Amino acid sequence: YQAKRDRTGVEVYESKRDSNTPDRLGLLGDLRRALDAHEVDLHYQPKVRFDGQVAGLEALVRWVHPERGKVPPDEFIAIAESSGLMPHLTEYVLETALGQVAKWRAQGLHVPVAVNVSPRDVHTPGFAGAVAARLARHGVPAGALQLEITEHVLLEDPQRAADTLAGLTGYGVKMSLDDFGTGYSSLVHLRRLPVSELKIDRSFVARLAVDTEDAEIVRCTVDLAHSLGLLVVAEGVEDDETWERLRDLGCDAVQGWLVAAAMPPEETTAWLRARGSRGWQRPAAALPAAT
Ligand code: C2E
Ligand code: MG
Ligand code: MG
Ligand code: MG
């Protein structure tokens, strides 16, 4: 294991990326079996606008390994990516998410769901058509699905990636650019990708209230995104002060533990129902005292 420090100075342990250690092979085999046995679940995290309206939910994959316990998605997704299992994982996630969307719609809960897709998926021939077929099979309109991509999709064969994304948006699927600020964040990328939403990476949001440079980066990103007609979502919002700063900077929506962590489906249903048409309200304790 290798220790790395993230921007907040917290140590993060990462499995070494070298490919064929027995540990990785073991985990890969286990993941394959877990998918077949439906032991991988999706949790859902709300994206809310500043008026409290629920803009959508992000599906986040969860795997509890029978012996190792919770395996962080970042870890097994890297393994799936480098082993060729990614298309299978993505099919599984899309299938599960669309099944859930259909269920919610049948209960009168019309909330769009975002699914994370990897660069590998975008480069899989026929991906756009396969997504459209899956939507049709579940009777879910394309507008109820959003796909979160990262700038990494443009690293290899940008033309093919652009064609696939154009195909998807042609069907009416909305695209969101995830983790903005961590990759190349080039204006060329933004112009090339047919996205309607940009998500500011958590690493800039985390210290927004105390770090003036991060605040400036967020301000510029919001302005840039708006000038391109994109919606801006901030991820990783954990406290009130950050929420207020983001609102003042003109950000459109937030996602983070302040609102809710990713929840299992039943809990998400209860959460959505409890919000009703009033939307999400900040806890009263956090609001200025009424006099
Ligand atoms: P992401 O798409 O950027 O997802 C946001 C991550 O931030 C999630 O981590 C979420 O649980 C976490 N998060 C949300 N709010 C907060 C907060 O307030 N504070 C903090 N500290 N963290 C927060 P998670 O679920 O561990 O997922 C990590 C990454 O794994 C995701 O980053 C995404 O890139 C990937 N991932 C997750 N599910 C899938 C999937 O189904 N398919 C693919 N291809 N990738 C996935
Ligand atoms: Mg995401
Ligand atoms: Mg993200
Ligand atoms: Mg991320």
TrEMBL record:
Organism domain of life: Bacteria
EAL domain span: 24-276
Protein name: Diguanylate cyclase (GGDEF) domain protein
Organism: Streptomyces graminofaciens
Covered range of the whole protein: 504 to 794 of 797
